[in-house]
Amino acid sequence: MNKEIKVSLLDLGVVKQGKEIADALADITTNAQKVEELGFHRIWLAEHHNMPTVSTAATAVLIGHIAGRTSRIRVGAGGIMLPNHSPLSVTEEFGTLDTLYPGRIDLGLGRAPGTDQPTAAALRRGNLASQNDFPRDIQALQQFFSSDNSQSNVRAFPGEGRKVPLYILGSSTDSAYLAAELGLPYAFASHFAPTQLFPALEIYRQNFKPSEVLKEPYVMAAVNVIAADTDEEAAHLRTSLDLMALGMVTGKRGKLSPPVDEMPEIFYHPEVQQALGRLSTFTFDGSKETIRLKINEFLEQTGADELITTNYIYDQEARLKSFDLLAEALELNCLV
User: What domains appear along the chain, each with residue ranges and CATH number?
Assistant: First the structure.
């Protein structure tokens, strides 16, 4: 790598076969403590709803839980789906978190519902058009957090005057324009939506306007990483993620399953393979050496300032080992 890259973790709290949501939440805590020791910069949690396989619906609550069980690592939302909430309530929640854990809380913001349309309607009390208010809602957030809001009739306590950094999330080119216009960091979900990564980054960088919080573009790009002692072992561990992706493609979502020696026949159907190939463009599996090469190539291609990693491995010990190998591959400075 030509420049020092920050490495972070996005943990979706995926529930495993034979396990419960409580187990997934316990794993998030363990993962956070582990990556903090390894020198990761931050851990983010993402808002999803009506998904029995994902445990992070109450994102702000979980952020407080994780921040209270770690000491240094930044903890935040990657992200809060802002159309599901009022800007005032988000300011109060994250203002509270930042008051409790000053200087460690991040607020990533997305415009997608993080769920299906009927659930989005329930969250938004039928106002599905709130997605169109995303730019205005971000500006309202900025106003509520600002000390200049002290003369307003509506104020956020806690929240007003808190320096909670905002990040714009994207999986298409739409949010790239907004992040550039507002002069905010831009995090792209290339781990599941890779096709528009490079056009979005080009739009963001070409249109970026310096702001009070950011003078130059700041790009965060996400990848799936499955590291093991050998390429063969990593490929075997990856079958858990492949099966989960297969469920997404075929409309049969399920819990994260143990790795398998042989994939089901439908996995090899040409249309399925094409869809899975698109999803897995930035899924990197292999030994420490293989992972180093793949990630360095990705960073060279994207020029990213920060690497956001996800890690879908069924066995918890193998998952923790993958964190170790990734840290060694990228030569992170361990904090212990």
Answer: 6-230+282-329 (3.20.20.30)
